[in-house]
């Protein structure tokens, strides 16, 4: 990656940078109201340009503005079914569904019979070595994270059929610095969990929008 440098002429110590008026006076010009207006317009244009560049850079780094999640009809109440109900993935899914407007219902609640069920059938995590050093020690790995889930209506019919999502990230493991490697791996795992929650919600959102489009097509 090539670093970009910006250089500018130096101003002597203790001296102030000349403003628009000083520059105009030095050039034998008078700063009129239109000139000041143009100066403000240029400043506003530069600010807008910087904002646009920042948005592009954020998008390139994986940050995207999210549209609101569209929940399917009948998904106002949801219960999560998992072998690890207090796990980080389940907790993040609960928070995301609440933000989308769904009510989370406990499995032993009387309202559970009328709630849809988001079932996490499997959650697997593994490291696969992809390169070794000159001593034959693994030094680069792929961290794989896979989840199998399905979403059922309160009557037991499938809303989102069972499917698998697998995500992965590569990281370098320095054999002589295991503490640093564990810290990097943990950060990647947190990122993968956030991405997994987003992926599951996008699947739900896609089904909701498909149902909405089908309903609009069949409407008289």
Write up what this structure looks like.
Mean pLDDT is 73; it is low at 1-42 and 47-67. The radius of gyration is 28 Å and the shape is elongated. The protein starts with 19 loop residues before the first helix and ends with a helix. Helices cover 40% and strands 25% of the residues. A 5-stranded mixed sheet has the order 2-1-3-4-5, covered by helices on one side. A hairpin with a 5-residue loop joins strand 3 and strand 4 (138-152). By secondary structure, the protein is of the alpha/beta class.
Could you write a compact summary of the structure shown?
The chain has helices at 20-26, 33-60, 88-99, 178-218; strands at 77-82, 103-104, 116-132, 138-152, 158-172. The chain has 220 residues and is of the alpha/beta class. The radius of gyration is 28 Å and the shape is elongated.
């Amino acid at each position: 990656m090539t670093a970009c440098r910006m250089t500018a002429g130096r101003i002597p110590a203790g001296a102030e940078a000349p403003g628009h008026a000083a520059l105009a006076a030095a050039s034998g010009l008078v700063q009129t109201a239109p000139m000041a207006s143009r100066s403000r317009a240029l400043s506003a244009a530069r600010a807008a340009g910087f904002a646009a560049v920042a948005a592009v850079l954020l998008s390139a780094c994986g940050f995207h503005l999210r549209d609101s999640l569209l929940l399917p009809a009948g998904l106002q109440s949801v219960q999560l079914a998992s072998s690890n109900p207090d796990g980080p993935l389940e907790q993040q899914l609960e928070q995301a569904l609440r933000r989308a407007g769904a009510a989370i219902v406990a499995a032993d609640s009387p309202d559970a019979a009328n709630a849809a069920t988001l079932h996490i059938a499997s959650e697997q995590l593994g490291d696969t070595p992809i390169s070794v050093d000159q001593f034959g020690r693994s030094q680069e790995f792929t961290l794989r994270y896979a989840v199998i889930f399905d979403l059922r209506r309160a009557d037991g019919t499938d809303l989102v059929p069972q499917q698998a999502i697998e995500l992965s990230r590569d990281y370098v493991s320095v054999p002589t610095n295991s503490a640093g490697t564990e810290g990097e791996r943990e950060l990647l795992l947190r990122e993968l969990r956030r991405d997994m929650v987003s992926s599951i919600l996008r699947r739900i959102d896609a089904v909701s929008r498909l149902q909405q489009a089908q309903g609009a097509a069949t409407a008289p």
